[in-house]
Amino acid sequence: MADINGVTLNAGSGPTVKYTITYSKSRPNNSQMTYHFTIAAALASSGSYIHSGYALLCTITVNGSSGQVRIKAPDNDNWDGTAPRYRSVTVTCSSTTGNTTQGVRFRVVSDGRLTLNSGVIDNSGYTVTSSALLTTACGAPSACSVSPTVAEGSAALSWSGASGGTNNAVTGFEVQYSDSANNADWGSWTALSTVSSSSGSGSLSVAPPAARGSYRRFRVRTQGSAGSSYYSGWKVSSNSVRKNTPPQPATTLTATPSVYSAGPITLTWSDASGGTSPIKGYMLASKTSTDGSTWTSWNVLETFDLSASSGSRTVTASTEPGTYTKYGLWTIDTLDVYSAEQVSNSILCVAAACDEPAIAAPKNGASTYNPNPRVLMTTGAQPSEQVVQVKIGTGNWWDGVNNPSLFSPSGEVGGSAAVMFKAESQSAGAKTLTVRCVNTDFEAPSAEISRSFTVLTSPFEAITTNETKVKASHITALRTAVNTVRNYYGLAPVSWSEEITAGRTEMKNWPLHILEIRTAVEPVIAVINQYSTDSGFAVPEPDWEELGTGRPRAAVMNQLAELILSL
User: In this structure, is residue 463 part of a structural domain?
Assistant: First the structure.
């Protein structure tokens, strides 16, 4: 069908009316069109007329919407001659596509008091053409975020939900960033990149800010083919990316032992911490020196996973005598960022540590009545100069140099040397004894040798001259105590010649029992004196009390008891 603009339609007869229709148009939005029609109505021949009583009403309909205008009123409106009369009507209708034809119904009816055929018409054979759609802006992305939110190197910025506008297809995206020290107060926006794309979504590799611990957020807007006037608004990212704060090294790193001749070496550390990312593990390295001053570069030993802030590790060390070694420990977080190193104390490899000593007394698990218990030992064969060290329980180490009154001989001793230690006064109870020797050149200790023993209280009843009657139980107590002491010094127990029973053992044999006990004590004295002849350490040969006959005197009994308590 043809466009109605400029068309002349002939309507009715007697007379015929000619309607010439023109229109202009406008688009208020992309959902509607407005058509402005002008109608030039003229009688077809001169001398023709339409007078009062007759009326004509024009209706123009486009896409279901109509407008009306009166061509001739019924009264006081005489229409004579061929001069046209002009009428205007506006129709606004639905229109969602541009440059598209829409059908037009042009209808004129007679609505006066008198019926009229002239000028009446109902024509739907023509169209109007809509205007092009208006250009609209692109739609901004509906979602925008960055991942991960903590990064050392790069992160991915992603967006989606963008759209083109009318006459404005998506051509790309503009990306800007802004930085903050606290994730709240942001700096100005800075251009970052333009991404060419016809899609409604996209991504871009982005970097965190240069300053560790700072934050960076982003914003994206859609670019379209209609130009910058029709770009979308900005979509700000829903989160930010933070430059990773590095992990912190352990506050302590200790290598033990500090002097050694052979490994292993134990490293212990504590109080490492992650930064913005948790601890993943650690790296261990070592460096060496021949003078303790000039060091090699770090040599990485291992990298291992451990999320704990403290730990220990067994490591290797130089086996070259005279070589110092230090260790470095780096904390690693889950983004593989390394802390600064924590450096250990230096340790020294020596030619050889001392050979371990041998303990002759006490026998492990044995008991003594002496509150100042003796320790009899022999140093290892090497080296030729060494110092004996002893401790009881968890106390301090005593040694022959710093505690000479407790050792015989005191000071430095040679290899395979017999040494006696006489402890300071101990309370009754179970004890643990530890002995080692130290190489004086490098302070390298031997292996530690331990013994357990018990300090007993006196088992003897007080015997007073002319008051206490010596009984079978007194003799039995001496016998038991002698075998206890013999066991302490590694001697076998004595099998006594006669069992003593109260009320049955004959008194005449009691001197023999005393002699037997004295004989059992003398090997103990001999063992002790093999290790020292120094006063205060050695046991003087006893000047035994005379026995006499019959029941032993108090002096005889007390002499034995006092001796046993001192062994």
Answer: no
Assign residue 160 the CATH number of its domain.
2.60.40.10
Number of domains in the chain: 5
Q: What is the pTM of this model?
A: 0.47
363 in the same domain as 330? no
Domain that holds residue 190: 143-243
User: What proportions of the chain, in percent to the nearest 5, are helix, strand and coil?
Assistant: 10, 40, 45
Tens of pLDDT, residue by residue over 394-433, are 999 999 999 999 999 999 999 999 999 999 999 999 999 9
pLDDT digits (tens, 9 = 90+) for 77-114: 999 989 999 999 999 999 999 999 999 999 999 998 88
Three-class HEC string of 372-385: CCEEEEECCCCCCC
- Do residues 487 and 366 lie in contact, with contact meaning Cβ atoms separated by under 8 Å? yes
Last residue of a domain, one of 81, 98, 129: 129
Max Cα-Cα span within the chain: 190
Query: What's the per-residue H, E or C state across 429-440?
Result: EEEEEEEEEEEC
Provide the angle, in degrees to the nearest 10, between the axes of the packed helices 510-529 and 554-566.
30
Name the residue with tokens 């020294």: 348
Residue 169's nearest CA partner among 244, 107, 223, 209 is 223
E strands in 271-337: 279-289, 299-305, 311-315, 324-333
**Is residue 561 domain-shared with residue 486, that is, in the same domain?**
yes
Asked, for residue 125, whether it belongs to a domain, the answer is yes
CA 211 to CA 189: how far, in whole Å?
A: 17
3-class SS at 495? coil
Does 297 reside within a domain?
yes
